[in-house]
Each structure stands twice: as C-alpha cells, then as structure tokens.
Amino acid sequence: MAFTPSGEDGLIAQTVRRFITERLQPLEARIDAADQVDRHEIQALKREVMQLGLFGYNMPGDLGGPGLSVTTQCIIDEELGRTTMPLAEAFGHLPGSLRFANVDQRAWLVQPLMRAETTIAYALTEPAAGSDLSAILTRGRKTDSGWVLDGTKHFISAAEDADHVIVLATTDKAAALKGRLTTFIVERGNPGLKILRRFGKMGWRGHPLSELALEDCFVPDSHVLGTPGQGFMAMMGTINNDRLMVAAKCVGIAQACMDLVLPHVRARKTFGQPLASHQAIQFSIADCDVEINAARLLVQQAARLADDVSPDFRIAASRAKLFASEMGGRVADRVLQIFGGAGYMTDLPIERYYRDVRAFRIGEGTSEMQRIQIARDVIERG
Ligand SMILES: Cc1cc2nc3c(=O)[nH]c(=O)nc-3n(C[C@H](O)[C@H](O)[C@H](O)COP(=O)(O)OP(=O)(O)OC[C@H]3O[C@@H](n4cnc5c(N)ncnc54)[C@H](O)[C@@H]3O)c2cc1C
Question: For residues 180 and 168, is the Cβ–Cβ distance under 8 A?
Fold first, then answer.
C-alpha cells in the first residue's frame, strides 16, 4: 500500500497543492473575514481548475468528470483540507446523486454544472429531521403534470445562490418510514422556493448555510431525479464517498496544522530552550503525528475498498470519517495550544482550522451516527 502519493497521483497532489498555494491561499483571509465570496471570482477559479482537468473531480467519466479512482479523489481532498470550504469549491465537488440524472437531465442540469456555468445545493435536513431522515415532513403532492412541494429545509450549504436545489421529500405518509423518498430538482427563480434566512455560524465563513421554504412549489415531472421513491437511495447511495471525502479533508487540515507548528517549535524559545526540547511539547507533537498517520491509513484503506467495490467499504468509510473528523479537532486544538496566543490570533490560519474542522463531526452523518453503524456491524459480525 502506498503511503505517499506517487506516479500520476503524486503529480495530481502537487498540482492541487500548487494551485492552493498560489491561487487560493492569498484569498483565504479576506473571504474568511468578510464571510462572503464573489460568485464571479469563484467561477473564474473554477475555469482555471477546468484547465487543469480536475474540475468536478468526484464525477465519473460518463457525467463529464475526470473519472478518477476514489483513492485519487481522497488525495485531492486531503490537499483541499488545507484551504477554506468556499475556496475548495473551485474544484467542484458535485453531489453524487447526479449519477441518477437521466439523458435529458444530463443535458440541462449536469453539463452546465460541469462547465461551471451553474451551481447546485442539496437539501435533506429539516428542523425536525436531521440524523433521522425518516422524519422528513417536506411533502411532494402529485398533480397531472408534475409535483407540488411544501416544507422547510435548513442548514443547506450554498443554497442562497444556487441555480438548482436537490430537495428530498416524501410523497405519502407511509413512504418516509419505508425509506421511499423522492428527490426533486428545484430551479432558482421558482416562485415556490424562498430563502428564509442565512444562519450565523462558527466556521466555514464564505460558505453560507440557509433555511429555505417550499410553498406550493411546482416542479414538472422532468425534474424528478431518478424515479419517485428512489430518492433515499439516490442521496444515500453515495454518502459513503462523501464521508470519506470529509475524512480526507480532516487529514489535510491536521497535516496543514502540523506543517505550521513544526518550524515554530524549532524556532520559538521559552526558558532559554526551543519549544521542541520541552517534553510536554514533544508528547503533543508525537500524538498529532500518530493520529494523523492513523487517520490517513483509514482513509487509504476505505478508498481501496471503494475502488474494489467491496461491501466492506460502507463501514470502512464510517470508521475513517469518525476517527479523522475527531482527530482533526484534537490536532487543531493541540497545535493552537503550542502556538500560545499566536494560535488564537487571525494572523495565522490555526484558529480558522480549529473552527472549520468542528463542522465535520456533524455534517455527512454525525460522529454518533458513525458509531451506531460501526457498532452494529461489529456486533453482527461477532
Ligand atoms: C457545516 C454544515 C453544513 C451542512 N450542510 C448541509 C447541506 O448542504 N444539506 C443538508 O441537507 N444538510 C446539511 N447540514 C445538516 C447536517 O446534515 C445535519 O446537521 C446533521 O445530519 C445532523 O442533524 P441535526 O443537526 O438535525 O441533529 P440531530 O439529528 O437532531 O441530532 C442531534 C444530536 O443527537 C445525536 N443523535 C441523534 N440521534 C441519536 C441516536 N439515536 N443515538 C445517539 N445520538 C444521537 C446526533 O449525533 C447529534 O449529536 C449541514 C450541517 C453543517 C453543520
């Protein structure tokens, strides 16, 4: 098993790292402070990433993506962990459920996304349904020519500006409990789609999370993604890939923290000695090093299982997501402490990593949901 990317993967990692260093890092502090991105600026960056052949890097070849292995996608995600959430979007991580797009939808929905002309959000979570999607209340009512949606969604990433929102809804009362949900594509400008508000939040600045309402929101039959009742599968079918992406990003965040702290512990002196010579600091560094490597190995193992289409991938992805997202928090916290006051100030990106990594224990399935899945699997296997 390769521990550091080599060959083509090594070149891709270098390309992504260079783009982040040269094109994205100079923008990070401004966007974080303003908590706002300029759509045109991000679109221009997306076009540059298209020139690199890496835009929509998680999309398969038949959808117009580069068709990379999951192992290679994880290498990219680890690099993307070094930058901010809104800027990582320049690489166009698109919803896996687009695989369910039919021929027509591929033309009017997927192709403009792959050309970076449009953007898309996905809306699963509701005020009364997050971890437990069987509690979804958003309802799709059939009419002669389509569906009418009613409901509220919240914490939806990048929805306020999105050209399309994928909405998960139930079509009859019993359907949700049986996992029969349906995904609808709602277009920007639909009079039944209202952005109610933008949430204030801890991190991910420049990447807005919104609450939105669907009120008598008509969508034609052509805007069902997949078939009615297939929505849960459409959204969950690729959730393990998304979980693994989160895990890889957390490894990237932790590694970026380490890369910043190592020169500091060598250079900074207290009580006449470099920080690096104090045993308490050494122990902290050793714990970070071991945990980062352990998380990276879990990511690589899960990615390999995904590429082998192994049934063990699901739990391997949960394991990687659980460990890496919690590890990322511990490493950012330890590194902030080693920097002392400087770690708390915005001159360095450590406080931002500390804020940003926290969300990964919640999104794409909380730590508790991963523990439930892992425990069930371990206990069932005996
Ligand atoms: C930064 C960020 C971005 C997001 N982006 C999106 C997005 O783009 N689209 C979208 O649809 N959603 C998005 N979400 C929402 C996210 O998916 C949900 O917050 C997440 O699934 C948890 O749901 P919840 O917040 O309703 O918590 P709840 O489900 O109410 O859970 C609350 C707490 O209880 C725990 N818990 C629940 N049930 C159990 C149990 N049986 N046993 C033990 N513990 C339990 C949970 O783990 C959690 O800690 C985003 C969230 C964040 C923070």
Answer: no
Q: How far is the CA of 366 from the centre of ligand 1 (A)?
A: 6
Which tokens go with 236?
């969950």
Pocket-testing residue among 161, 199, 362, 367, ligand 1, by greatest number of atoms within 8 A of Cβ: 362
Question: 185, 207, 231 — which closes off a domain?
Answer: 231
Low-confidence ranges of the chain (pLDDT < 50): none
Q: What is the per-residue pLDDT for 268?
A: 98
Please report whether residue 347 resides in a domain.
Answer: yes
Structure tokens at 245: 């992406």
Contact in structure between 49 and 24 (CB atoms under 8 Å): no
Ligand 1 atom, smallest distance to 159 CA: 8
pLDDT tens digits for range 55-103 = 999 999 999 999 999 999 999 999 999 999 999 999 999 999 999 999 9
pLDDT (tens digit per residue) in 100-130 = 999 999 999 999 999 999 999 999 999 999 9
DSSP letter for each residue of 355-376 = HHHHGGGTTTS-HHHHHHHHHH
- Same domain for 208 and 244? no
Q: Which contiguous run of DSSP H or E holds residue 194?
A: strand 193-198
| pLDDT at 249 (0 to 100) | 98
Looking up residue 11, the CATH number of its domain turns out to be 1.10.540.10
In-domain check, residue 320: yes
Q: Take atom 30 of ligand 1 and give the residue whose Cα is closest.
A: 130
User: Last residue of a domain, which of 196, 231, 266?
Assistant: 231
Residue 287 in tokens: 């714990």
Residue from 89, 122, 136, 155 to probe ligand 1 pocket by mutation (most atoms less than 8 Å from CB): 155
Give the count of domains, the chain: 3
Q: Is 104 inside any structural domain?
A: no
Name the residue with the closest Cα to ligand 1, atom 26. 130
**Residue 41 a catalytic site member:** no
